[in-house]
Amino acid sequence: MSTNDNNGSDGGEKRTPKLNERILSSLSKRTVAAHPWHDLEIGPEAPKVFNVVIEITKGSKVKYELDKKTGMIKVDRILYSSVVYPHNYGFIPRTLCEDNDPLDVLVLMQEPVLPGCFLRARAIGLMPMIDQVMHPLFISKVSNSAVSGKECGIKSII
């Protein structure tokens, strides 16, 4: 095989790697993606304002969850009823509950947010949630106060 792509002439030009060589080269380079549970910080203003990684979008019939090994958001199941998630649902990074999962958060906001993204939120309430074990569920809203300086509480929502 010739070392250049100019029909056998050796004018000293470097050859352009073929597509399959570029693909193999990129596959051989190891890259590690950030893990949303372990690598994302809780946030510099925690516990007042904290980061939340969204797993399930508001209005969705698809239940997603974090794959603990890869850090990817995976489909857990499809809800086959008229039930949808009323708000965005996610977790607080670098937390751990009795069920060995991160702390769950229901984020009250008007718009759906894509699974896998994170946002800053403020806790406005707490309620027990029964899954396989009983653990707390934070009820929070997106923290606009960090931008606008306006404080919002549970009374402004109900």
What can you tell me about this protein's structure?
The strands form two sheets. A five-stranded mixed barrel has the order 1-4-5-7-6. A two-stranded antiparallel sheet has the order 2-3. The termini are far apart. Mean pLDDT is 77; it is low at 1-6 and 145-149. The protein has a domain at 49-156: Alpha-Beta Complex (Inorganic Pyrophosphatase). With 158 residues, the protein is mostly beta strands. The chain has helices spanning 19-28, 145-148; strands at residues 49-56, 62-66, 73-78, 88-92, 103-108, 118-130, 134-142. 21% of the residues are buried. The chain is built from two helices and seven strands. It is elongated, with a radius of gyration of 23 Å.
Summarize this, please?
The chain is mainly beta.
Ordered list of secondary-structure elements with their pairings:
Layout: H1 19-28, E1 49-56, E2 62-66, E3 73-78, E4 88-92, E5 103-108, E6 118-130, E7 134-142, H2 145-148
Parallel strand pairs: 5-7
Antiparallel strand pairs: 1-4, 1-6, 2-3, 4-5, 6-7
Count, helices:
2
Rounded mean pLDDT score: 77
Q: How do the strands line up in the largest sheet?
A: 1-4-5-7-6
Helix content: under 10%
User: Tally of extended strands?
Assistant: 7
Give the overall shape, derived from the CA principal axes: elongated
Taken in chain order, the helices and strands follow as HEEEEEEEH
Beta-strand proportion:
25-35%
Using the coordinates above, name the CATH class of the domain at 49-156.
Alpha Beta
User: What name does the CATH topology of the domain at 49-156 carry?
Assistant: Inorganic Pyrophosphatase
Low-confidence stretches: 1-6, 145-149
Structural class: mainly beta
> Biggest sheet: strands, sense, closure?
5 strands, mixed, barrel
Cα end-to-end separation: 73 Å
* Radius of gyration from the alpha-carbon trace, in angstroms: 23 Å
Which superfamily, in CATH terms, is the homologous superfamily of the domain at 49-156? Inorganic pyrophosphatase
CATH architecture of the domain at 49-156: Alpha-Beta Complex
Cofactor: Mg(2+)
Organism: Linum tenue
Keywords: Hydrolase, Magnesium, Metal-binding
Pfam family, one: Pyrophosphatase
